[in-house]
Design goal:
There is one protein chain. Helix content is about 5%, strand content about 55%.
């Protein structure tokens, strides 16, 4: 029997940090780097897509320690494929460098 191939329904990304200036940072907006996205034109495909930051907590709720903070990609940031995203609750600083899931919906194709 052949091995079943599973396909992800999301793209992988990393949290780079908050939007910032020289001396201030804005925790309402997080910067994300999406795997395989190198240009602003590539990043435009992901605008409006939903983002999930999945993490594990110590305390169990509803039979699970798994938690999710949902967000949405707002706009590109710079020319190297980084995007700005807003989350329902601001991401904790512990999430910097952590992976996020960029869902491929809502689709505009």
């Amino acid at each position: 029997m052949a091995a079943e191939s599973t396909s992800r329904l999301y793209a992988k990304g990393r949290v780079l940090g908050y939007e910032r200036a020289k001396r201030t940072q804005n925790p309402n907006v997080s910067l994300l780097k999406i795997e395989g996205v190198q240009t602003t034109e590539d990043a435009r495909f992901y605008l409006g897509k939903r983002v999930a930051y999945v993490y594990y907590a110590n305390k169990e709720k509803n039979g699970s320690k798994l938690r999710v903070i949902w967000g949405r990609i707002a706009r590109p940031h710079g020319t190297s494929g980084v995007v700005k995203a807003r989350f329902r609750k601001n991401l904790p600083p512990k999430s910097f460098g952590a992976s996020v899931r960029i869902m491929l919906y809502p689709s505009n194709i």
